[in-house]
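Inverse folding, one chain.
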């Protein structure tokens, strides 16, 4: 997914928290790139710590990305076999859920963004 990195907030200990804008809404997650990365566009892969995530039928339209009360909320189409599609991004999820539109909630500190070069 192409995101726009707005800023990195130091987290002690560990990687910084990234404030990003996605095509589907704003997000906050751990940044697994260089802590000195400047603001700007980045292609990223998402990972979610399933041990800290919950899934439910989506209350609204998909795709959607937002943060609320320290939680990252990802809404997309779940294939029932372990992949959540949020826009053009595929997020592996080992969570029990039926196929269809779902919302995954995870604390921001348990979601990660891995930037990569295209």
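Residues assigned per position:
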């Amino acid at each position: 997914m192409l995101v726009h990195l707005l800023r990195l907030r130091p987290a002690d200990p560990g990687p910084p928290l990234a404030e990003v804008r996605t095509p589907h809404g704003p997000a906050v997650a751990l940044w697994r790139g260089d802590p000195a990365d400047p603001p700007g566009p980045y292609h990223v892969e998402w990972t979610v710590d399933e041990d800290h995530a919950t899934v439910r039928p989506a209350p609204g339209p998909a795709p959607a990305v937002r943060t609320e009360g320290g939680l990252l909320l990802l809404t997309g189409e779940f294939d029932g076999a372990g992949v959540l599609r949020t826009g053009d991004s595929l997020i592996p999820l080992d969570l029990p859920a039926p196929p269809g539109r779902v919302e995954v909630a995870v604390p921001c500190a348990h979601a990660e963004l891995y930037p990569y070069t295209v």
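The two ends are 11 Å apart (CA to CA). The CA atoms of residues 5 and 20 lie 5 Å apart.
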